[in-house]
Design brief:
Elements (H helix, E strand, L loop, with lengths): L10 E3 L11 E2 L2 H5 L4 E7 L3 E5 L4 E2 L13 H17 L1 E7 L6 E2 L7 E8 L2 E2 L2 H10 L7 E6 L7 H12 L8 E2 L10 E6 L3 E2 L7 E5 L20 H8 L1
Parallel strand pairs: 1-2, 1-14
Antiparallel strand pairs: 3-10, 3-12, 4-5, 4-6, 6-8, 7-11, 8-9, 9-13, 12-14
């Protein structure tokens, strides 16, 4: 039984090629999207979904606060902001990139990137997400562009083409396939309603595209995990 409510299951676009047997697909994504005024596309980063709230630091499962060694770096700062999160009933969700997963990011600036903020039963707007991230001194997931859905030029085919094209490029932080050390594209793209929406309506407001063959090794990354280097550490070493 969870002591904290975890992040919702993000459904794939029906044209997302990187689905697995346990993934869920939203075949009605365009119908859902047409009820949204504006969406924003952000990079889907390859890390561990992590939540900071008034109770503790949680990984994907919210049964208990995480004890993973790659989450330890978050706890010192968390101890300073925990009371603010608790009093204001704010939960910050972000991608923990401290440990390398299937993608190595050679130009990584930070180890934690915020992609959502929840207040009680509402997922806050993207502007509020950025406000809270800035307030607590965290960066947000890389932003691409916004689309006003009632614009006549924005069609289902246009969104499909844009997301597919954006996913075929490398990550904002560079991207190397772990295990082969070959250049690769970003993991994918997440599209969300730029405005706030209820927890119950998550499926109809968030969509994702994941590239085919994202995970290319049989051994899970956590078995022999390595710390991801930050770009400033490499620059300092080369001075």
């Amino acid at each position: 039984m969870s002591i904290s409510k975890k992040y919702g299951r993000t459904y794939h676009y029906d044209f997302s090629p990187g689905t697995t047997s346990d993934d869920r697909i939203n075949k009605n994504w365009w119908k859902d999207m047409q009820k949204i005024k504006k969406v924003i596309h952000t990079e889907k980063l390859d890390g561990e979904n992590t939540c900071l709230n008034g109770i503790g630091v949680f990984a994907r499962s919210h049964a208990a606060p995480t004890t993973h060694p790659w989450s330890s770096f978050l706890k010192e700062k968390f101890s300073m902001i925990q009371n603010d999160l608790k009093v204001n009933e704010i939960e910050i969700f972000g991608e923990n990139l401290y440990a390398q997963h299937s993608i190595i990011y050679p130009h990584l600036d930070e180890h934690f990137y915020v992609f959502a903020v929840r207040h009680l039963d509402m997922w806050l707007s993207w502007e509020e997400v950025k406000w809270y991230a800035n307030f607590f001194d965290y960066p947000v997931a890389p932003e691409f562009t916004t689309h006003t859905i009632n614009d006549k030029s924005i069609t289902k085919e246009y969104i499909k083409e844009y997301v597919t094209l954006q996913s075929s490029a490398e990550s904002v932080f560079g991207s190397i396939q772990n295990g082969t050390n070959e250049d690769c594209t970003k993991e994918g793209v997440v599209t969300r309603n730029i405005e706030e929406y209820s927890v119950d309506d998550f499926k109809q407001n968030v969509f994702k595209y994941v590239r085919k063959g994202h995970v290319s090794t049989d051994v899970h990354w956590s078995r022999n995990w390595k710390r991801a280097s930050l770009i400033h550490e490499k620059n300092d070493k080369n001075k």
